[in-house]
């Protein structure tokens, strides 16, 4: 029998970090509870954005939020906001992440950020600490993008960065439009767009996330400081040809979009190196239609995920990928359509914030190692509007988006303490600024 997430987390935890109201057992039990919602046979989770499983996970966290004394609401985009009043009014210190997953994903990507923020609030409740400014714990909708091929949707809705036109062209793998999916979820397109907030209500945003890499593990550090987030661009590519019988259609004259797509995939892997050492291009999703063993495909749809720390290089790579798709279509005798589903600028973390976080790390006896994030996060969207910070937690073997994804409980609790100390210091500054 597979060891439960709770038992595995607690087996390697000695409890010495349980102080100042922070509880490793509580965090472990909550991570384990969410791991059961959408659980897969491999021990991972399937919680696509705007699915019943994602909503159930949100509702579970909402229950915990209320027990912790937060006022809780869900906006028209499905984002959950748990709010704790401070000694004074003014912009809030916000922290959170998401609970949706990639197909058969892991148990830490997203939930750790949400539950860590909630654990900080739980610690304040137990110690009687009253924050000087309001605090918000946020769960953002559809961060991963596994439903529509367009991620970080909830945070974009909250910041007003997503409009009606972008939503109108979205559909999931089953052909359901965004309007149909969001309606089944219990809201509407207009309510989704109405989730945009006056961002003067948020004075700062912080997010804990697993590293999804090996640098912290190699350095022997439990956590690190994110210095910036690479900007992703998602290019949807559709090759269209002519369907036919696999046995009765001669090879000469075929218009096979899968052959063109295969040539394109091969070439894409060599393009990033032409622009920078940090640029990447990935195709992780491909749909073949009609997808029959004895049928020449009529259509092949795929998404190219393109990222870099440098916006100029990233945009240059996007154009090169476009040109390559068009050439492969011509060479294959098929048609191609291209749509830039999303494009987000890289977001640096302000120097002042990194220095402040560095001091918190040093006071905790941890070397403040700075890392870049090649993955997109809700912090990237919020960071385009308000000051933000991210703390990475060590990932075992760097595995992510996989049931084997794991971070030790001791490292997770260390990050909770770092967030708690940083939040208390930052909120004092925020209150002084308002005063």
TrEMBL record:
<dbReference type="Pfam" id="PF01546">
    <property type="entry name" value="Peptidase_M20"/>
</dbReference>
<dbReference type="Pfam" id="PF07687">
    <property type="entry name" value="M20_dimer"/>
</dbReference>
<feature type="domain" description="Peptidase M20 dimerisation">
    <location>
        <begin position="231"/>
        <end position="327"/>
    </location>
</feature>
<dbReference type="InterPro" id="IPR011650">
    <property type="entry name" value="Peptidase_M20_dimer"/>
</dbReference>
<dbReference type="GO" id="GO:0016787">
    <property type="term" value="F:hydrolase activity"/>
</dbReference>
<dbReference type="InterPro" id="IPR002933">
    <property type="entry name" value="Peptidase_M20"/>
</dbReference>
<keyword id="KW-0464">Manganese</keyword>
<protein>
    <submittedName>
        <fullName>Zn-dependent hydrolase</fullName>
    </submittedName>
</protein>
<keyword id="KW-0378">Hydrolase</keyword>
<comment type="subunit">
    <text>Homodimer.</text>
</comment>
<dbReference type="InterPro" id="IPR036264">
    <property type="entry name" value="Bact_exopeptidase_dim_dom"/>
</dbReference>
<dbReference type="InterPro" id="IPR010158">
    <property type="entry name" value="Amidase_Cbmase"/>
</dbReference>
<keyword id="KW-0479">Metal-binding</keyword>
<comment type="similarity">
    <text>Belongs to the peptidase M20 family.</text>
</comment>
